[in-house]
Design brief:
The complex is a heterodimer.
Chain A lengths: L1 E7 L2 E10 L4 H14 L4 E5 L2 E5 L1 H16 L3 E5 L3 H9 L8 E2 L2 H7 L2
Parallel strand pairs in A: 2-3, 2-4, 3-5, 5-6
Antiparallel strand pairs in A: 1-2
Helix pairs in contact in A: 1-2
Chain B lengths: L7 E6 L3 H13 L7 H22 L7 E9 L2 E7 L26 H8 L2 E6 L5 E8 L7 H8 L1
Antiparallel strand pairs in B: 1-2, 2-3, 3-5, 4-5
Helix pairs in contact in B: 1-2, 2-3
Classes of the chains: A alpha/beta, B alpha+beta.
Chain lengths: 112, 154
């Protein structure tokens, strides 16, 4: 799994590609979020549009990222949930925790 | 119908990278059933979770311990058994990850996922240790197209 990062109007957009699953993507996501925080980013938008699979460990890592960023007075929001990932966020009721967007511009603006 | 779907048995070492292998083999073995995408995805996800739990919590990633997977069609159900060599656990102690106090916990969703994706989950525990998780998924109007495929291939 590869994660790229770009910056738009003070928001770090992390874009993982592939699977966020145990022993692979979950660690990569953790590292990417910690790197963004270490670089001074407080506003992180996680674009899941190119994520094909998220297992329970992947969900746990997304939750961990959320609490880590929140504990550092930052914000982590989600963008472009694929249908299967959206289903998982629904059944786990994590949709009640995260701000989720389908439009990048709207998502970036929400951090202002 | 079930006779046309070969039973699959796998034994893997307790390493996370083997999860992918199990999922690929199971999905390939069930291809003849022509399951709809949603059912196939559900089974694949549940198998991932069961094997991950067996490696992580059962065998505690001890490379000397194996995880065995058995998959077949029994009647109108896909039945998958995942067995580890760990010390067992009490399913009743697994909390609902949707409860407010659990919602932001980073773990504790594996068994919940299995229940969501499958129709029935059973656990059995050996007297000398080891846990067998049995996953069952009913396949509605199953259709074995292997004969048609065989004809097409001839």
């Amino acid at each position: 799994m590869k994660i790229s990062a770009r910056h738009v109007k003070g928001v770090t957009i992390l874009e993982p590609k592939g699977k966020i699953t145990i022993g692979a993507g979950d660690i990569a996501l953790r590292d990417a979020v910690h790197e963004a925080l270490a670089a001074g980013s407080k506003n992180i938008l996680l674009n899941l549009g190119d994520v094909t699979t998220v297992d329970s460990s992947g969900v746990g890592e997304i939750v961990s990222a959320f609490t880590t960023v929140t504990n550092r007075q930052g914000k982590l929001k989600l963008l472009h949930l694929p249908p299967k990932v959206n289903d998982i966020m629904q059944i786990t009721q994590l949709v009640t925790v995260f701000d989720i967007f389908d439009d990048e511009e709207e998502a970036v603006k929400s951090f202002e | 119908m079930s006779a046309r779907v070969p039973r699959v048995r796998l034994a893997i070492g307790s390493q996370f990278e083997n999860i992918e292998l199990v999922q690929i083999v199971i999905e390939e073995s069930l291809r003849k059933l022509c399951l709809d995408e949603g059912t196939a995805h559900s089974i694949g996800m549940a198998v991932r979770e069961a094997v991950a739990n067996a490696i992580q919590h059962g065998n505690r990633q001890d490379p000397g311990k194996r995880v065995e997977v058995d998959c077949g069609v029994e009647g109108d159900e896909v039945v998958i058994r995942v067995e580890d060599q760990g010390s067992g656990f009490d399913p009743a102690r697994i909390g609902d990850p949707r409860l407010p106090g659990n919602l932001l916990k980073p773990n504790g969703r594996g068994i919940f996922f299995m229940h969501q994706f499958m129709d029935e989950i059973d656990y059995s525990f050996g007297t000398d240790g080891g846990t067998v998780v049995t996953l069952k998924k009913r396949i509605t109007a199953p259709e074995d197209v292997s004969e048609e495929r065989d004809k097409e291939e001839r």
